[in-house]
């Protein structure tokens, strides 16, 4: 979004038993090594415990097994893809998005619904995801900042934030853009600078880039 926004000898020794060491130790070492590599492969391929998955339609049948004790299975569409996760009842939507789905563009700020950094769209309405439980969103359609653009094509509000230099540290930027796209699509919000300031007042910019944020919002008007 923002252009501001990564032991050979030892292994060799391990492959051969020490002098006088039982031969079965080598077999056990190889077995444990293969198990370890298999575990890493499973984790990186998305098959690890608790890993969310998706396709363009319904969630994969791999979730036919019951969720772990104390967890609830939740299915929703996020950024156009179906996702299914198992969460405890007290997990907030923000944490489910960031930790379970690894969509870290949505930022964790105050955790009290006061800063707006975690703003997302649920069924077309902008909400603070830190104030909503994940289990409340069965069947909902969710959009995060990662879902604004299409591939390498920036959304008009993202392009405007670049052109108007509407960010400094960038921490609030995703929430600002999610709120901006919501109010630009809401006919009830006036078009004046004052109306935009009022509608965006729930999004705090610690760096004080409000003038440029306002310019970015207004320059996007009519493009979304």
Automatic annotation (TrEMBL):
InterPro entries: 2Fe-2S-bd (IPR002888), 2Fe-2S-bd_dom_sf (IPR036884), 2Fe-2S_ferredoxin-like_sf (IPR036010), 2Fe-2S_ferredoxin-type (IPR001041), 2Fe2S_fd_BS (IPR006058), Aldehyde_Oxdr_Iron-Sulfur (IPR052914), Beta-grasp_dom_sf (IPR012675), TAT_signal (IPR006311). SUPFAM superfamilies: 2Fe-2S ferredoxin-like, CO dehydrogenase ISP C-domain like. PROSITE patterns: 2FE2S_FER_1 (PS00197), 2FE2S_FER_2 (PS51085), TAT (PS51318). Residues 1-30 are annotated as: Disordered. Residues 72-148 form the 2Fe-2S ferredoxin-type domain. The keyword Oxidoreductase applies. The keyword Iron applies. Keywords: Iron, Metal-binding, Oxidoreductase. Coiled coil: none annotated. PANTHER family: OXIDOREDUCTASE WITH IRON-SULFUR SUBUNIT (PTHR45331:SF2), OXIDOREDUCTASE, IRON-SULPHUR BINDING SUBUNIT-RELATED-RELATED (PTHR45331). This is Twin-arginine translocation pathway signal.
């Amino acid at each position: 979004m923002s252009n501001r926004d990564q032991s050979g000898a030892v292994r060799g020794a391990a492959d051969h038993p020490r002098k006088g060491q039982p031969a079965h130790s080598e077999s056990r070492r190889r077995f444990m090594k293969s198990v370890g590599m298999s575990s890493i492969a499973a984790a990186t391929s998305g098959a690890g415990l608790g890993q969310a998955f998706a396709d363009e339609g319904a969630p994969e049948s791999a979730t036919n097994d019951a969720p772990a004790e104390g967890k609830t299975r939740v299915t929703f569409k996020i950024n156009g893809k179906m996702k299914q996760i198992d969460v405890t009842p007290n997990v907030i939507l923000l944490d489910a998005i960031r930790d379970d789905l690894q969509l870290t563009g949505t930022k964790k700020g105050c955790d009290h619904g006061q800063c707006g950094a975690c703003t997302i769209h649920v069924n077309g309405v902008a909400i603070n995801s830190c104030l909503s439980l994940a289990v409340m969103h069965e069947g909902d359609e969710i959009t995060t900042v990662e879902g604004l653009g299409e591939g390498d094509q920036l959304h008009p509000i993202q392009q405007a934030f670049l052109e108007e230099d509407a960010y400094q540290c960038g921490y609030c930027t995703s929430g600002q853009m999610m709120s901006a796209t919501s109010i630009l699509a809401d006919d009830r919000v006036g078009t004046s600078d004052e109306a935009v300031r009022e509608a965006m007042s729930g999004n705090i910019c610690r760096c004080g880039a409000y003038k440029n944020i306002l310019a970015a919002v207004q320059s996007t008007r009519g493009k979304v």
